[in-house]
Amino acid sequence: MKQEQNPQQAAASFLSILRQSRYAVALTGAGVSTASGIPDFRGAGGLYSKISPQTFELDFFLSSPEEYYKIAIEHIHPLADKTPNPTHQMLARLEKENLLKALITQNIDGLHTKAGSQNVIEFHGNVLHFHCLNCNDPCTRAQVDEQIRRRKVPRCTRCGGLIRPDIVFFGDLIPPDALQKAQEWVRQADVFVVLGSSLEVNPAASLAYDAHRNGARLLIANRGPTRLDPIAHERYELDLTDFSNAVLQNLQ
User: Fold this and answer.
1) Three-state DSSP class for 92?
2) What is the dihedral of CA 89, 238, 77, 248, to 10 degrees?
3) Would you say 191 and 211 are in contact if contact means Cβ atoms under 8 Å apart?
4) Distance (Å, rounded) from C-alpha 113 to C-alpha 116?
5) Over 90: is that where the pLDDT of 49 sits?
6) Are strands 125-132 and 163-167 parallel, antiparallel or unpaired?
7) Whole-angstrom distance, CA of residue 244 vs CA of residue 88
8) Which of 3, 65, 72, 217 ranks highest by number of CB atoms within 10 Å?
């Protein structure tokens, strides 16, 4: 494994490149939220050590909504109750300083928006919003959780249809608007930053490769290898909280 770098040196290199950029875009993965107490999926002690990957399959939700919501109210919905950590705060600050134009996240916890980021695509949706599969009426998490406790499966108060979360299950398509907007950002990017992602899950991971192919500088900050390390312009191997705090200090 590559030796861990000095956070201050990495932050200085990172900011130097961003300050020379015209249109920087970031992609974040599960590693960004671990410091907020949200486990990643596949690591030791990760979410998949507590629940089956089948939980996030569309067929499982449609065939066993009661079982899905029994798991979700304990392990998935509480993700939205967590607090943004220094990496979320650093990315929001970079946007405010006009050093980052846009942010694409694979995470469903809503913490980038909670931290203050404005120009965000939640590529896989989020756990905050729900809608009826029959009439498409929206539903809040509070309404859903109350119904789960009372009747186990939330139903639309208007038509009685099954309520589903606004997350992208395995078996779902990425919402076309989100995909189109992300691809537009990738085409404009001259710097593409990846944080906390091993770049194993497509189509989100393919955005980083597409940006590189279009001529963008690819910057990767992650603890552990990623699929695109060999083509990265800069590779920062370090703890994201240490790195983000160093970036924030440099911006002050």
Assistant:
1) helix
2) -10
3) no
4) 5
5) no
6) antiparallel
7) 9
8) 72
Among 197, 250, 234, smallest CA distance to 29 is for 197
How far apart CA 133 and CA 155 sit, in angstroms, is: 10
Q: For the beta carbon of residue 112, count every other beta carbon within 10 angstroms.
A: 29
Q: Which residue is it, tokens 């608007």?
A: 177
Whether residue 109 is predicted with pLDDT greater than 60 in this model: the reply is: yes
63 vs 175: CA distance, rounded Å: 22
With 0-12 / 13-18 / 19 or more C-beta atoms within 10 angstroms meaning exposed / middle / buried, residue 155 is middle
Question: Looking at the chain, how many residues does it have?
Answer: 252
pLDDT tens for residues 153-191?
999 999 999 999 999 999 999 999 999 999 999 999 999
Give the integer Cα–Cα distance in Å for 133 and 138.
Answer: 10
CA distance 75 to 31: 17
Q: Which residues of 32-56 are buried (b: 16+ CB within 10 A; e: fewer)?
A: bbbbbebbbeeeeeebeeebeeebb
Helix (H, G, I), strand (E, B) or coil at 108: coil
Q: Which residue has the tokens 């944080």?
A: 195
Average pLDDT, the chain: 94
User: Rounded to two decimals, what is the model's pTM?
Assistant: 0.93
In the predicted structure, residue 223 carries a pLDDT above the cut 80:
yes
